[in-house]
Every structure is written in structure tokens, then in C-alpha cells.
Amino acid sequence: MHRSSFLTPSRLAGRRALVAMATGTLVLGAAACGSSDGGSSGASGGGAEKVGVSLITKDSTNPFFVAMQKGAKADADKNNVTLTVASGKQEGDDAGQITAIEDAIARGDKGVLITPMSNGVNAAMKKARDAGLYVIALDTPPDPADTVDITFATDNRAAGKLDGQWAAGQLAGKPAVIALLDLFNDKIVSVDYNRDQGFLEGMGIDVKDPKKNGDEDKTGKYTGGKGGDYTIVCNEPGNGAEDGGRTAMEKCLSKNPDINLVYTINEPTAVGANAALKAQGKTALIVSVDGGCAGVKSVTDGVIGATAQQYPLKMATLGMEAIAKIARGGEKPKVSPGLDFYNTGVALVTDKKVDGVDSISSADAAKICWGN
Predict the structure, then answer these.
(1) Which of 88, 139, 238, 260 has its CA at a distance of 20 to 30 angstroms from the CA of residue 69?
(2) Which is nearest to 246 in space by CA: 296, 179, 342?
(3) Which residue positions does the secretion signal occupy (predicted)?
(4) Residue 1 within any structural domain of the chain
């Protein structure tokens, strides 16, 4: 399945109903952004003076970040923005992001949009704010949240919970032998612990420290669905990549070949996990988070049982519009009620519905997905 990596205004207009269905009702606060559906209204583009904005992603290869970059580039002219795109070399490259932030300061940009690699870039983001730049985190809320001016992101805890609730419903009381394929084991990243811990909470498994992966009891009872016994075999880092997911899954299978449920931090990791399972003649329920077109196709094909769909284009375009508007004297955006970030929505994508768990089909998700 091939789809454009970003939505033109005409395509976006035709998909608003589906986006509204998928993301639910979003409370936007006093919007500094011109559109609530992720498209550009052009409201920010009236200023004669160009506004410099830097978009700094974790890497430039993951389809999620590629889509974010392409969407931002397509929308920059409408907001009269001079956009500079940069990234780390790969997941974990704090130094690359720090250099890009320092370059934005030196260039005199008005703002920075960043998917923070880890807490290791907090000091650099604070330096940018101290220099007068408006800093917006995308996708990955920093810890603490007030390290940046505001975050535009998926509710990653909610995304994980949807995966866990679906998995518990699918198991229907059978024992759960679980592999948790996280992002890192040597860095603290909010998206990492929120998705992992949210998944466990959705399964009905008690977590200890909600901001720490791997400290929960390794055996016990899950209470989601019909409830049953669980065993957590492993917490292995896949670094958000397909090869990392395969290696992590191989390590988990070496510990226990009877794994029947795999949580993955993202869809490239899920694809790698499936390859490892397939190589050993095994199958398992796989859940993930992303909702890119490739991941949605994996749901259609039965590789991934369910994935929580995010909206990276919305994060990037709303963030860019906000900086452009603020630079021209407009209002600052506000967080969603009850949260410390601006919620850009999430929808569970599956073709095997579970009673009591809201979801959309892979066919509907394919109409609003991103990437190739």
C-alpha cells in the first residue's frame, strides 16, 4: 500500500470526518493554532516578516519522523515560515539534537519544535527558552513537562492502555506470557515508560513506579478482560527499530519460547519481533503504537493485532502555526483540560474488535494514515 507522506489541503478536507471519528473530541483550549483538525488555516501566514522555526526530530529514517518532516515542509509557506529541519543520527543521539538546538539559537529562530530524545536534552531546551525562543515538544513530553513551553502529543498512557485492554480481551482468560519490547534500557523517556506502563495498566497488571519500566511483579494475575495468570518474560530495548525489535524478541524467546503476547514501543519494532517469531515457527499477539500506513497494513495482514494510531502531521503543523502566531503577537496555546500537554488524539486500530474497547478498522485507519 502506497500513500503520500503528507496530506494536501484538499485531501485533508475530505478526511476530516474520519479524523474526528478516530481522534474523538479534542478540547483545544484557547487555540493559538488556526485549525483543530491538523490542517493549516493560513491564519498565521499573514505576517510580512518571515519567521524562523527549527524542527528537530529523533532521526530522519523512522516513518513517523519522516512524515512529520514532510508535513511541516509542506505547511511552512502557508505560515510564512523559514523552516530548518534537523535530527539526531539515530534514536539515542542526544548530542545531535543539542547541536541542532544551539544552531537554532545562533540562527535567531523564533522557535523550536522538537521530539526530545531524552532528559539529556533538557538543559539545551532550557537554554533556547532563556534565549527567547518558544520551544514546543512534539510526540514525546519531556520530564518535567515545564522544561518546554508546551507539548503537542498523543496521550501515550492512553495509547498503551488501549493496547492492554484489547490484549486482555483477546486472551479471554488464557494465561498471558508477555514480552515487553521497550525503547531504551539506559535512558529515561516519557513516551517509553508511558506506553509500557499504560499497556500493563490496560491489562490490569499492577505497576510499581509509573515512570519506571521493569519493576512490576513478574508473575501474578491480570484483571483485564476475563482475567487470568500472567508471566512477564522480559523487558528488552529495541531502540525503536526493526533490527532492534528482532534482536530483542530473539533474546526474549531464548528465555521463554512460549511467549504469546508481545507489546512493542512502535511498529518498526513490531515488524522485527514478528520476523523473530516467524523464524522460530511461532506466533503471538502483537500490539504496538504508531498508526503509519505500513503499520496499518500490518494490521490488515494480521502481523500486528492492534496498534494505537497517532497523528504526527497534526503535531507538526499545529506546533508550527503556534510559533508563527506567537512571533506575530498572537496568543499562546493552552494544554488540554486535566493534562500537562495538548492532546492530539489517538485511536486503536484493529480488525478484531473487543467489547468495551473503542477502535476503528484498518480500512478506516488506512484513509487517515501517514507515511508509505
Answers:
(1) 238
(2) 179
(3) 1-22
(4) no
